[in-house]
Structures are given as C-alpha cells and as structure tokens.
Amino acid sequence: MKNRFSELFHSKGVNYYSDDLPLQAALAFFGFEGDSDLSGLGRFVSEEFIEALDYIDHYGKPVLKPWSLTGERIDYVRLSPEHRYILDRLQRFGLISKMVNGSESLFYHFVTGYVVSDSGIFCTFTLTAQTAYALQKYADEGTRRSFLPKFSDPEEPWYGATFYTEIQGGSDLGANKTVARERDDGFLISGPDKYFASNAGIADGAVVTARIEGSKDGAKGISTFFVPALRRDGSRNYTIRRLKDKLGTVAVPTGEVEFDDAEAFLLGSREYGIYVAMEILSISRIDDAIAAVGIARKAFWEACIYSTERYAFGKRISDHELLARDMVEMEAELEAAMVVSLMAAREFDRASGSMPPYDERYNLSRLLASLAKNVAAETSAMVTRYSMEIAGGIGFLEEFPMAKFHRDSIVTSIWEGTSNIQALEMLETIVRKRADISLIKRMKELIASLKDRALASDLEKETTLLFERIGRVLKSGEGEFHSKTILMEIGELVATVLMFSIADRSAPGSEIFRSSAKVYYARHFRMAEDYRKLVLGSGSIISWMSDAAASAKK
Ligand SMILES: Cc1cc2nc3c(=O)[nH]c(=O)nc-3n(C[C@H](O)[C@H](O)[C@H](O)COP(=O)(O)OP(=O)(O)OC[C@H]3O[C@@H](n4cnc5c(N)ncnc54)[C@H](O)[C@@H]3O)c2cc1C
User: What is the helix (H) or strand (E) element at residue 103, kind and residue range?
Assistant: First the structure.
C-alpha cells in the first residue's frame, strides 16, 4: 500500500541536514565538517521520523505499568513499537556513541539536535549525553569503567537522565531536600520528590542532586551523584510514582521519582557539587536551544512550501507583500537564533576540559548558553506559532504535524531554567565572572575582520554603547530588574555580528546571510532607509526551502 504521509506533510523527502543551506554556511563558519551519517540522519528525519513521531504523539505515548502479573512492583514504562524503533535508529546514527568513544566531538552531538529537532525524543538523547559526559569527566576510575562503556554499547546502549527538580523547587536547586548518607561501600540516597524526572523508565542511570548529611544549607551544600536504575543485586534502585500528562514533548516520559536508600556514586568533589550539576545542565541548555531552532526550521519549512501552493485573492499567498515581509523577517530571526546557539555549542565543546572553579573560556560558554537558550526559545515559539498562522486554519489542526511543532516549542523556555533564570545566570557570569570581557573581545575581533568597513565601524560603536549602558545599569543596582532586556540585547548583538561574519565567507549558503543579516540589523539596530525594498528584495533567503522540496519530490 502506498504511503501517503507526504499528503499530510509537505517537506517529507527534504534532507534536514544537507538541504539546509544556512545551517551548512554556519557550520562551515564554525569549522565543522560533518560526516555521511548526518546526511543520513537528515533524510531519515524527514522520511520516517516525523511520521512516526506524529503517531507516537497522538496515539502511542509512553505508559507506566507499575505492577507485574504476580503483583510485584516493576515500574515498566511501556513504549510503542514505533518509539522503540525510532530510538534504535537514532542510536545507530551515533548521537551518543561517537561522543563517548571519542570519534566525534560534543559539538557533533549538538548538531544532531538541530537535525532531529524534536524536543521530546531529543530530550532522551540530551539526558543521555549529559549522563555520559558526567561519568566521563567526573566519575572515579572504577565507576567510569563500570558504567561509561555501556553508553556506547552497539547492541543495547544505555540511556541517562538528570533528576534535579523537586516538588519545592526547580529553579532553586538549593532547596533540594534529597539526602545522601555515606557508607563504607558508597552513598545511599533518599528523598520522595524528584518531581520532574524525564526519561524515567527509559534511563538505565541518572545524574541526581542530593545533600550529603551534614553539608551546608543552600546550593553550596548540593552534591552530584550517578544513580543506576538497578542496584548491584539487580533489584530496582528507585520507584517511579507516576508519569506526567504534558502539553508537548509526549515522546519523552516525564515522571516523579522516589528514592529510598538508592545506591549512588559521587561525581566530582563534594566541594564543587553544584558546579558539576550546573555544568551538566549547560549541555541541556545548549541542546535545548539548538533543538528549539531545529523545530522552528521544520515548522517554517512546512509553512514556506504551503505558502507557495495556497492561493488567496487570485495569487499565491507568498506573493502578497505583507506575508512576504513576515516570512523574510522570520527567516532572519531563525538564522539569528541558530548562529547564537551554534556559537554556544562550539564554545562549550572547547571549554569542556575546564574544571571547577573554571577558566575564562568556560565562563564565556556559560554566558553564551544563557543567551542562546533565551533567544532560541523565544524565536522557536514565535516561528512555530506564526508558521501555523501561515497555514491558516489548517495550521491549527491536530490532523497534521504542524501544531505539534508549536506545542513542543513552548517548553523550551521553561525546562533547564526558565527565561528569568537565564537572565539571572547571565548577570552572574557578567558581574562575578566578568565573562563580558571575553565576549566583547571576541565580538570586536569578528567585527574587525568584516569587509564592509562602514558597517564594522557602526557595529563597533553599538558594542561599546551596549556594554557601557549595561555597566551603568549594573552600577546603579538595577541589574536584576533589567536583566531580561539585557539578555535579549546581548543576544541580538552576537547574532548580528555572527550573521555578517558568515555572510563574508564564500561557503555555500553564505549569500543567504548577506540579506538576512541586513534585515536583522535593520529590525534590531538601525532601520534601513528603504526597508520595504530591502525585505522584498530578500526573497531568496527563503526560496531555497521550496526549491529543495521541489527537487526532493522529483
Ligand atoms: C516537560 C518537562 C520536563 C522536565 N524534565 C526535568 C528533568 O528531567 N529533570 C529535572 O530535574 N527537571 C525537569 N523539569 C523541571 C524544570 O527544569 C523546571 O520545571 C524548571 O526549571 C522550573 O522550575 P519550577 O517548575 O520549580 O518553577 P519555579 O522554580 O517554581 O519557578 C516558577 C516561576 O518563578 C520564576 N522564578 C523563580 N525564581 C525566580 C527568580 N529568582 N527571579 C525571577 N523569577 C523567578 C520562574 O522563572 C518561573 O516563571 C522538567 C519540566 C518540564 C515542564
């Protein structure tokens, strides 16, 4: 029987990796060379994955089966066959194993997040990458040797999780009440309320925050542990109370977990426990940002194709000036969020050798992670929402995959630290770590090599003015009040500089940035004298999507 899913989803058949010209230009700028698995992944996502995910989302969500036939507690999270198939296929593209066995960098893993771009399924891989990273960097030799190789097992690779949030607080990890007691043969963890535990039931082990008995109050008293799902004797190490009923990200089970003397292995030193927890969280902040942009790209790809096929008032809707403007502006915003997220990924990867209390490079990567998460989450919510509107009433229907993109995008500003928490995190990296100094230096180096000298001089001034203004705000003691605006403004500056820098390269796709950078600059810094002409003359920054879809159909 013929598969007719392409009649429900227009961009089926495009390659979400190699056909994505702005992505290719940005990756070339960041010095990344992908492999054939990434092209395979790009095709797999459009050919099979979206269809399977659409099915899982509507009809096949994970279900908790707490009890066995004989009445024993088993906490089995049952996945549909489609779900198991998808996890297996994604593992085979090396999303985790390449990072664990060192054949590819952490940056490679981040790039896969853009291509997969499903905040539910990719959450499973984010949490696994974080857990493997934590074991690799912070476990003692014995713990690392016992558990890490399992994450790159070719037949039955392990999955990970991070259980930090408790019922009394997610933003405020210092409020954690879970307790760790030290015994001769390791730690035992107890606590009834790990309240948002994604990947529960899939994970074979989790990174868990807890307070060692007798430690300080607040965040400084937090330590970080690896907790396997099974004890040494094979019995369950923790209990899953229930799974949450969520608006989106249906494909990742999010549970509530209880610990009662769970066997645990300390990661890093007690002194720097909260640092370790936050470093691991940076991986998910960056993955989250990159996946958020990836979701936006898929939704927008779909909307663009739709706009060339739908007619209103006698012509294609894409030919109506007002909609043409919307689409060019959306593309510019999407590319901006993408380049900031990729820069955060690149810098985190490069800084990952740094140990607590960390060096300048790490502090810069932390600042970039907050900028990226914020700009990507905002952009993703906007682009996925407006893509629905471009598809008119049809965009709002759950009968097609479009609506799911928006549902999945909304969580990206909440989990791994809300937008307010990102703003406060940015303040800390600037006020206490002076990461602004490294960022300004990096921006000025890029600006200095721009070909358009008049533009370079304007951007140099904008950079100086922005950071002088931030300095005055911080001095006046109003930093917290203005922090979210500052977060957005720094993100916009970084995006603009990166976009013009990419436009100056001669890699395929960089010409797209020449127009989108101008549109973005006009919107956020200096309105162009003839903005209408600029926007309407920039149609090529979106036409590559319908071109790719047309050749995929041939
Ligand atoms: C689908 C889903 C999956 C999740 N999976 C996991 C997981 O696997 N592991 C895990 O550990 N957690 C997970 N979480 C939890 C998530 O990280 C937290 O929900 C999030 O960090 C916010 O914490 P909270 O819900 O306790 O909200 P709160 O911390 O109570 O915050 C409530 C509101 O207050 C604001 N706020 C709090 N403090 C401040 C402040 N100082 N200044 C200004 N505003 C402030 C916040 O921005 C927010 O708007 C998940 C959440 C969701 C929705």
Answer: none
